[in-house]
Amino acid sequence: MNEEKSKKRKLSEENGTDSSEPAVKSSKTPIQCPYLDTINRHVLDFDFEKLCSVSLTRINVYACLVCGKYFQGRGTNTHAYTHSVAESHHVFLNLHTLKFYCLPDNYEVIDSSLNDIKYVLNPIFTPEQIKQLDQSTKMSRAIDGTMYTPGIVGLNNIKANDYCNVILQCLSQVRPLRNYFLREENYANVKRPPGDSSFLLVQRFGELLRKLWNPRAFKAHVSPHEMLQAVVLWSKKKFQFIKQSDPIDFLSWFLNSLHIALNGTKKPNSSIIYKSFLGHMRIYTRKLPPPDADDAAKVDLNSEEYAEMITESPFLYLTCDLPPTPLFTDEFRENIIPQVNLYQLLSKFNGQTSKEYKTYKENFLKRFEITQLPPYLILYIKRFTKNTFFVEKNPTVVNFPVKNVDFGDILTPEIKEKHNGKTTYELVGNIVHDGTPEKGTYRAHVLHTPTQQWYEMQDLHVTSILPQMITLTEAYIQIYELKQD
């Protein structure tokens, strides 16, 4: 008897129902539901966690399509049943199976007019639709009449998660990454060890991208609530949405976590993350003799300890160091905002420029030489320096071209030849920090490829911007795309 029960339970779990649920009234012809006109699409919001608003459980959750709230179950005495009787709200959607029901009568509602609700909860993209994303200039209309461009929609700031929003917005413009995550079957069958739930991060990121690019959304913005919950959980509260963090720390952690969750290894093409962002460099390190004259006299510079060491190193982004800000003001007693050219910053990676690095005991001279450029190159412009007492920000403006940036200039002739002349990049994402180190905010600039129009995104605010204005900002993180033609 118990075996029979457990078999039933197993079967019902596989079908996405709960064995405690009552059976649905079945009939040969679908029942016409008289309550479909009570559905209020304006209040429907599937961006938040799928929890029952009364019991906070995740199992068997239904959305009331009249008021938008979530409730558990549909059998008698369940929260959804009680709500339908008390409030006379009758149409519900199972958030897991995507089936519609009428309560308290408990029959399934089958009606093609509800497909738009199903699509908003779970947008699906075909390969043909994904191809069209980079050509289509068509705008979409939200339910309240707002016009929006799919892929260029604001992200809600819950409290202090703008550092997270700007990274998600820029990554959503990286085409191979976007195309991979828009189709759930690409990563649905990734094998993970038993009990490992970090894969949820991958699913949540996929869901978020599908919502950002949804051409039939009900509203012209997205709340990254579920994505952020996954981030808080898997970063063990290192990144939160109530406390500001550094976007470069988040980007580094996020890309590595996605790579591992997709079963990525150290091999270059083992995940979509490495395929898009992984580059290689050679690091030449030489130990310097101690600065004290007495100690230096005892040093044999030809010994093995002071020989140059060469290490091969992969990278997901390049750290560019800004020159120190001038200490003095000009003759008009005004601060000049110093400027520096992007190519000047990149000279760090040409294999000839040496830079001194100090550790607690020893000093080293390092040279960096890029041996392979990735399809998408991320530059991190180091603006903040921490000392014992506080964090300082370097306000130097970096002058960079938006189009036709040739990174071949920093490669050696042999390595440049290996790239077959494909070393020209174009900017697709730019993250800016405004304000002081402690209280600053972040905004992103992204390029909409079909229209070649730049947009500035600061949480829910999305405005078009001229490319000339982008180059005047205090750029912090940039994503460049390799030109294929």
Notes on the structure:
Helices cover 25% and strands 25% of the residues. The chain contains 15 helices and 25 strands. Strands 12, 16, 20, 21, 22, 23, 24 and 25 form an 8-stranded mixed beta sheet that branches. The chain has a 5-stranded antiparallel beta sheet with strand order 2-1-3-4-5, with helices on one face. Strands 11-10-15-14 form a 4-stranded antiparallel beta sheet, with no helix packed on it. The longest helix has 15 residues, at 247-261. Residues 7-17 have low confidence and may be disordered. It holds the Pfam family UCH.
Sequence-ordered SSE layout with sheet pairings:
Blueprint: H1 2-14, E1 61-64, E2 70-72, H2 79-87, E3 91-94, E4 100-102, E5 107-109, H3 115-121, H4 127-132, E6 140-141, E7 147-148, E8 154-155, H5 162-171, H6 175-182, H7 185-188, H8 199-212, E9 221-222, H9 225-234, H10 247-261, H11 272-277, E10 279-287, H12 293-297, E11 309-315, E12 318-321, E13 339-341, H13 342-346, E14 350-358, E15 363-372, E16 376-382, E17 384-386, E18 391-393, E19 397-399, E20 405-406, H14 413-418, E21 424-434, E22 441-448, E23 453-458, E24 461-465, H15 467-470, E25 475-482
Parallel strand pairs: 8-9, 12-16, 13-19
Antiparallel strand pairs: 1-2, 1-3, 3-4, 4-5, 6-7, 10-11, 10-15, 14-15, 16-25, 17-18, 20-21, 21-22, 21-25, 22-23, 23-24
Helix pairs in contact: 8-9
